[in-house]
Amino acid sequence: MVIESIREFNRTVPFVPYEVRTNGGETYAVPHPDFISIAPRGSFVIIIDKHERPHHLSAILIERVSPLNGHARHRVRKRRA
Known about the structure:
The protein is mainly β. The protein has one helix at 2-11; strands at 18-22, 27-30, 36-38, 44-48, 54-58, 62-67. It has a single domain, classed as SH3 type barrels. Helix content is 12%, strand content 35%. It is globular and about 30 Å long.
């Protein structure tokens, strides 16, 4: 589910900025976890944009979540001794 992906992005350490894309083609940047709030049951999210305007998005309208500006989510791999 997309909401679980959003929660995963928010818990990533170090945090990687990401964007939320709706099925209507709109994209919303999430530069820091403080800019997004997820309803307890995951039915909607609220994203605050750079102008401090809230955007209420229904979870069923969210198409995907991906790293912003080419940031990649890197996995930490253990080095062999």
